[in-house]
Amino acid sequence: MGSSGVGQYPTKTQxxxxxxxxxxxVTSAANNGKKECNGTPKDTSPAxxxxxxxxxxxxxxHIYKMEKIIFQGKSEFQELLVFESSRHGKVAILDGxxxxxxxxxxxxxxxxxHLALCSVPNPKxxxxxxxGDGGILREISRHSSVQHIDICEIDTMVIDVxxxxxPDIAIxxxxxxxxxxxxxxxxxxNSVPKGTYDVIILDAFQPMGPIAEVLADKCFLDSVAxxxxxxxxxxxxxxxxxxxxxxxxxxxxxCKNIFKGSVxxxxxxxxxxxxxxxxxxxxxxxxxxxxxxxxxxxxxxxQNGVAKGPPKFYNxxxxxxxxxxxxxxxxxxDPKRY
Length: 338
Hints:
Keywords: Polyamine biosynthesis, Transferase. The protein is α/β, with parallel strands linked by helices.
C-alpha cells in the first residue's frame, strides 16, 4: 500500500513532522484528509468529534476513533495523514483514502506478494511499483531465491513517513537486495530491457479506481508484459467482488490477450477496506506454464528475511483458497457457462 508510483517526475520533497493533541480534529475522505480544527468537515457527523470517517464507497462510511494525529504533511504529489486509532493501531490516509492500518496491513501485503512469488520456481528479480510503505518489500525478503529487488516510488515523503512511524512495516527497506528508484513507475517500466523481471507487483490504488484504469490501459500492460521474462508474473490489486459495479470479465480477457499465459482473479479479506474484501489480478506471460491455484514455491518457515516473524495470514492453503470464487463471481467472469 502506498502512492501509485505513477505520475510526474519528482523534485525535492519537503517533509514536515508535526504532532497534534486536539481530540476534536476530525478528518474525512470528503475533504482529502485535511486538518480541521474547532469544527467538522461537511460530510462528517458533528455528533462524532474526534472520529475519522472513511467514505471510500458512496453511501457508506467506516468510522475510526482518533486518539492522536501523529503526522500531517503534503508533498508536491499528495497529502499524507497518520493518526493513532483506539482499536486499529496507526492508520495512514493518502489523499483522503485509507491506505492501511497496523491491525490488518499484513493480510493485503502478504497476499499480493506471495500469490505471485509462490507460484513460480526460484524467482530472482522482482519489481515493485508503488508500495512505499515497505510492507511488500518485507514480504519479498522472505524469498531466499530473490537476488535483486527494485522499488519504484514517486514520493520520498511516503517512504520517510513510513520509516519514522511504521518501522515494523518499513523494515523491508533494510533488505540489502532492495534498490530504491524515486521516479515515475510507467516511465521506469518502459525503460527496462525486455524480460528483465521474474515478478512485477503493482501496489497502486485509491482505492481500486485508478488501478482499474491501469488494468484497462493496453499500452501500460504491454510494457509490463515486455518487462517480464517468459513465464513471468504480474500481481496487482483489483476490485472487491462486492463492488456494486464489479466487472472483471473484460479485464481478464484483455490480460489474456496481452500476457498470453494464465490469468486469474483471487480475493481475500482485509477489514480495513470498503466491504472488507479486496481482489487481486494474477497474470503470467507466455512461456513455462503457471498454475496460480497450486503454489509450487512454498515459503520456508525458517526463512523470514528482514521480517520479525513468520507470516500472519498467508499459507499454502490460503493461497489455493483465494482462487475459490462465489458462484456470482464465477458467472461474472465466464457468463457463457451460466
